[in-house]
Amino acid sequence: MGLSASKGVITSKHAHALLGPTEAQRLEEGFVRLCGRGRLLRRQFFVQDLLLTAFPNMSVQLGNRIFHAIDTGEAQEIELDQFLCSVAVLTRGTLEQQMQIFGRLFDLDASGVLNRDIMCRFLRVIYGRPFADGPRCAALLARLFGEHDDGDADGGGAIDTDSIIASNSMR
Fold it and tell me: pLDDT below 50 — which residues of the chain?
């Protein structure tokens, strides 16, 4: 049930095929320029120096979640293959593959379950309270959790990541 945090969405070979030799080489060269020894360190580099420099309005919490979604080996470092696989999936992967990364991004305790309340908090961090508490966000959450809402009285709701992947693969 749910996603395995230690398993990547696609293999390195598949990532290279999706990206093509030119783009894969360009990404590899950029990665090596950024970190030299073949790994990006968690807070010291990836979140603080790379993400927050490129996206200054991004919260550290979201940066850490992005790191977690890419660090499939949970080694507290991102290896070149993990980086290439994530870029390939996010730019050229199937909806199902992208949803697996989405699940990893928002599944805080690696239980394989996404919680409506946690999703709402992330949306507040990313877009601010006016959007997160507005009708567009409510519609988004209802669409995501609507059929799968566990009916919590507090509106918390939860959905298994496999259910999200299956329901979005059918569309």
Answer: 1-6, 147-155, 170
76 by DSSP, 3-state: which? coil
Nearest to 112 by CA among 20, 12, 2, 28: 2
CA distances from 38 to 50, 54, 61, 130, 168 (A): 15, 20, 24, 41, 35
- Could you read off the pLDDT of 147-169 as tens digits, one per residue? 444 444 344 577 776 776 666 55
- pTM equals 0.73
Q: Report CA-CA distances (Å) from 166 to 21, 110, 124.
A: 31, 18, 26
DSSP label at 51? I
Strand pairing report for 158-160 and 77-79: unpaired
